[in-house]
Amino acid sequence: RSPQHNNKFVPSSSSNPFDSDDDGEKASKTKYKSDFRDSGGPESQSVQDLENHAVHRAEETTKSVNECLKIAEEMREDATKTLVTLHQQGEQITRAHTVAADIDQDLSRSEKLLGSLGGIFSKTWKPKKSHPIKGPIMTTTTTTTITDDPLHRRGNHLEQRERLGLTRKSKLVPDDEQQRPTNALQKVEVERAKQDDALGDLSDVLGELKAMAIDMGTEIERHNKALDRFEDDADELHHRVKGASQRTRRLLGK
Question: Whole-model pTM?
Answer without folding.
Answer: 0.64
